[in-house]
């Protein structure tokens, strides 16, 4: 039996840096003394780590602390608004979007270009995405990480195994994009990224299923404040639950998938509308065909979501994408279906809410995940970015 290894000095410093930065991120305006009291670290250790974080532009000092009594007054510490940003990219079926968020997750800039990516090869799409990323990088804002959201099954190595709505199979997005822009990227499922945006910037509950509906239907599962990705990273494919085994074929190869019964494209088609704006207009005019189509979609959603709730006992459903826009029309038939089908509804009623993050949820989640990588491990960022004259500061 091997003996446990003693933590190295570097490991301790790495943990302490993360501890201090987390305290500042969680309590903007906190002082050095308050951090020491909160973390249990010595004031000297906190002071040295804070100076390193300031030198790396991860932390900025604010006003002098206002308080009565003797003693030196501390300065308020915040995440630096000029520090490294996260760059989020969404590769959608009909668009490519990018956004920049600061360390606090605030969106600083965004760009969207409409494009039917189904008509283009993956290589062409990745080249255009690389152009969009380079344009964002050229703004002169330091980027500490790039996250990419794709509507498909994404393995942990950044390969899109299949994206039926894009027509992609076995596309190495991570290396394909990194080689074009010269910057490491993280790749994830679009619905998962949207769920993370909802967790960090929206509803904020610790347990919910986020339904993403832009072109197809995806779901992000958040359990105990953490995204549940599944063993291979392929969890949350709500749109490909078969709700009608005798239903129409689906690009995924199955039949009667939820996307074919209640997906955004199918919903607009069955309503007789040209697009979402026309659908909303028809609903406002109380068009019977449009109203019937929305109610039918709500019931099919209820069938699939009831299965998810029964399996996982998740108490909240957050509707995103087109479903957030249609929420007032979807709510009653969806709630009725959940009430009939969820076994535990009598004791734990399911709550359904509309997302407040908006259409940029996927790219915002991807950008914020890139930033949070820095916040959770600032020492790695510190050692890779500090100039020699700054890194000579004494290390606790």
CATH topology annotation of the largest domain: Nucleotidyltransferase, domain 5
Strand order of the largest sheet: 5-4-3-6-10
CATH homologous superfamily title of the largest domain: ATPase, nucleotide binding domain
For the record, the count of structural domains works out to 3
Give the termini distance in whole angstroms: 32 Å
Give me the CATH architecture of the largest domain, please.
2-Layer Sandwich
Name of the top-level CATH class of the largest domain:
Alpha Beta
> What are the low-pLDDT stretches, counting only 5+ consecutive residues below 50?
385-396
What is the succession of H and E elements?
HHHEEEEEHEEEEHEHEEEHHHHEHHEHHH
The major sheet is characterized as:
5 strands, mixed
State which percent range the strand residues make up: 15-25%
By DSSP, the count of extended strands is 15
Radius of gyration: 24 Å
Helix segment tally: 15
Rounded mean pLDDT score: 89
Give the class from helix and strand content and strand pairing: alpha/beta
Note the quaternary state here: single chain
Helix content: 40-55%
